[in-house]
Design goal:
CATH superfamily of the largest domain: YVTN repeat-like/Quinoprotein amine dehydrogenase
Strand order of the largest sheet: 2-1-18
Distance between the termini: 34 Å
Structural class: mainly beta
CATH class of the largest domain: Mainly Beta
CATH architecture of the largest domain: 7 Propeller
CATH topology of the largest domain: Methylamine Dehydrogenase, Chain H
Helix content: under 10%
Number of strands: 36
Number of domains: 2
Strand content: 35-45%
Amino acid sequence: MWIDRISARRVAFVLLTPLFVLGLGVPSAEGQTTSPHSQSARTSTSGGRVPHYSESEAGYWFVGADGGVFNFGLAQFGGSASGATTAPVVGMAPDYLSGGYWLAGRDGHVYSEGGANDFGLDTPEFVSAPITGIATTFDSGGYWLVGADGRIYPIGDAVNYGSMYGKHLNSPVVGMASTADGKGYWLVASDGGIFSFGDAVFHGSTGAIRLNQPIVGMTATPAGGGYWFVAADGGVFSFGDATFLGSMGATHLNKPVVAMGSTFDGLGYWLAAADGGIFTFGDAPYYGSTGNLQLASPIVGFTSVFPNYLNRTIAIAPTTTGNGYWLATIFGFVDHFGDAGNHGDARNVSLNLPIIGMAPTTDAGGYWLVDSGGSIFTYGDAASHGSWNPSPSAPVMGMAVTPDGAGYWAFDAAGTVRGFGDANTYGDATGRDGNYMAAFVPTPDGLGYWEVDVDGTVYNYGDAEVLPGVTAQLQFPVVGAITTPDGKGLTIVDFAGDAYVVGDAVSHGSATPSQLPGLDFVTGMARTPDGGGYWMCTAAGNVLPFGNAASFGSTVNS
């Protein structure tokens, strides 16, 4: 399954994928945090242990049809529209930039709370059918509204990639979800019919199935390789790389389910009922509910708190001497430390897609950046050897340079490898299994390479040694890997900074929870020149040195 990280190599996309779903609900009471006394169904994908990165998801909000907002965990109450609405609220969407949220009214009015951009009150003057859904764009520069007739209303930098307006629908549209890169979206109807636009891929529907209860919403997996639907009776339907982790379909509910959302790693989800009851599955934490309160109007929407690292660090690249390094972010910012030179970056460039990888030239006089569509950007003495054109069907996950610096490879989530310049390809993991590829590591002589998937399975090509991969059952997705100087071993790191060694690789340590405070997580790693240590970089811009790797600074507080 392609979880995504924009990098983690990508928790980028994951964190930018809207995880709420709007249902056809109607009005709740003004909200503040309430006591956590609601029923909670829980299944675990990790032997009963809830991973600490799930706990760092922090919390969630509910919204009622009267615009009242309820916050739980570390989710901050940013205000509500209670008493100020012109029509019932139907759902909410997060603003990743401000930490606030938007509340969508049935008549198209949107209420900006907690610092969320109001776009000059740029709301539709006319809607042809009641609004039923809202989704945030990749950069929080806008959002889409969708009506029951399938009409799309783009606000801010949201682009209209198509709609069902004017076309026959068997059932009304009840929600939407955007793709990981924000260049497409899905619409879901109450019969489970799915309509995909832009780069959204159709993974299946329930349109031809007789449902016990209507579909009330959907949420996409972080990388956009699949999605879930939820019905009013709590039944969950999974498609593509979305994993079925349980449902409330066979359980008596006090009130119908109205919304759902997935965790940012895609390994869990929440279902929210009209009375504010919350049901958790997989690694989704329970922070509380309104199931024990008498509400003025029903809950209609839900969204979880996201780590506030919009311009998160996604890669670390060391200099030739090992006495410095660069850190790159998804917006193309590059910061230099130690003896690393400033060769420029993309901070003043309007990027179409997020940066997801970086590679330095062999003399440290420049570097390349690659975005999720395979476009290559050159800085300093880095020469262009071409970009991935046309873009691959799966997101590009990273890049690596050949030993002489006269070429580079790029690889995508499906395992496809492309070579540029003098980089030769020796095969790849395309179609090997359902897991996405998380890391690509060339051999020291450049005549082979390994690919490592999210579960720690290692694939070897060319002169790359056959290595066993991670034999332990991982509880966190792999985000990076490095080879030993002799090419006979690998160190593999996961989302939580746990380091695993195979072959002749020696472990120099793993990250501790204290090194990943709050909402932070590991997004990549790099080796010292002699292999006596390594660095890990985190989404917040921190650098964690191990072995003989030295710290030269970070962007964690910048």
